[in-house]
Prior knowledge:
Blueprint (H helix, E strand, L loop, with lengths): L19 H6 L4 H7 L3 H11 L11 H6 L10 E6 L8 H8 L1 H15 L3 E6 L4 H16 L15 E6 L9 H8 L23 E5 H13 L1 H5 L2 E2 L11 E2 L1 E8 L5 E6 L4 H8 L9 E5 L8 E2 L11 H4 L9 E6 L4 H15 L5 H18 L5 H11 L13 H15 L1 H10 L12
Parallel strand pairs: 1-2, 1-4, 2-3, 7-11
Antiparallel strand pairs: 5-6, 7-8, 9-10, 9-11
The structure holds flavin mononucleotide and iron/sulfur cluster (SF4).
Amino acid sequence: MPKFEPVLLARVGKPDSQKLETYRRDGGYEALKKALAMSPEEVTNVVKDSGLRGRGGAGFPTGLKWTFLPKNHTGPIYLAINADESEPGTFNNRILMEDDPHQILEGIAISCHAIKSERAYLYLRFEYGKSYRNLQAAIDECYAAGILGNNSMGSGKKLDIFLHRGAGAYICGEETGLIESLEGKRAWPRIKPPFPAIEGLFRKPTIVNNIETMACVTHILNRGVEWFKSIGVPPDPKNPRDAGSYGPKLYCLSGHVNKPGCYELPLGVTARELIFEHGGGIPHGRKVKAVVPGGISMGFLSADELDIPLDFNGPGKVGCLGLGTAAVVVVDDSISIVDVLYNCCRFFSHESCGQCTPCREGTAWMTKILERMRSGHGTTRDLDLLAEVSGSIGIIPGTTICGLSDGAAWPVKNAIKKFRPEFEEYIASGKKTARVPVGAH
Ligand SMILES: Cc1cc2nc3c(=O)[nH]c(=O)nc-3n(C[C@H](O)[C@H](O)[C@H](O)COP(=O)(O)O)c2cc1C
Ligand code: SF4
């Protein structure tokens, strides 16, 4: 693999990095110029050929998603950009939006050209005040400079980008929940099909993509397919469903680690390299107990699984749901896995939108079982019950509307399987770590 050069974070931290003037000085909006000289189909093919997979969690191939739009559609097509960023431990979108918003706006403009859309909505996590201010200022600069508006870059095409502040819930990040919320309703995910590409925002064909995905589009147009494919990992020949993991990735590193932060690295870096070489290891010489590989909905790696690559295929090899948002959270050996799992369950129970019985009841039930354990009243039967409930509430085999329930189930499945002796020891000791009365969550 050629020497890796960060691109997504290249401008972060430089003076006035959020301003159009400095962005243009660094070659900004040249990729858009290039794209506008190509046909929408050609741009889509470039993104398809690059192997770019969505950075929002599911890793769906971006160019392929764009081809699901109806052909020869005459009405409006929308691009909805997902900046809800609520997966615990994830903050890479925020850094891009605060420090280099034009990089994202350029990717959005290129993507709108590719999907023949005149209008993009950027759905922003409500709590991100600085992102809101910097993005809106950057959008205003684009209108003033003729990059956006009725004659975008002199192309004769219309392009508008609207910034929309979110409704403040994790479920607003699920793509159809986001669409409902953009329409001014409660963010209740929709039953699919129809998928958004056919019937999305305002019932019109809509593509939903993540912020980091948009930043990648800018660099693919700038530097080309070969450059993008020279970074990362090709498809695993042993896994016919793996589409490869190409390009740079922003890994968020937090928890018990000496140097937490956002690291741009080639897809496929191992958890060990990320934590020990880039993150400086574990404070106070303690040991790793568990590592969240990509947001808590992906489950846990145990201490002897740190050599798996953090690409789209790697975490699945050791029983995790996937790479997710690549938010890596380190838990050291001073922390009880019972407490860690309780926090995960409490989060999902709170964030379940309540439409589907298995998700609404299952997440609350798992939280109650862990509360019981943490108040010293758990039994080993509770472990089997947790395993049973977590195995029954997911979208597979089609019991719920969205993926939140799977995300809620995975940490439980992994924890019981990988850390069962610690749970048994905890129960046998009659230990109490609950700081809240049972039932008070
Ligand atoms: C409960 C839930 C929450 C989600 N939250 C986010 C989010 O905050 N940001 C995001 O980009 N994708 C999130 N997703 C994934 C989106 O549904 C969708 O797959 C993604 O925005 C598509 O963009 P991409 O193809 O560029 O990755 C979430 C999914 C689920 C099930
Ligand atoms: S799975 Fe959970 S979060 Fe998703 S729609 Fe059903 S109840 Fe709501």
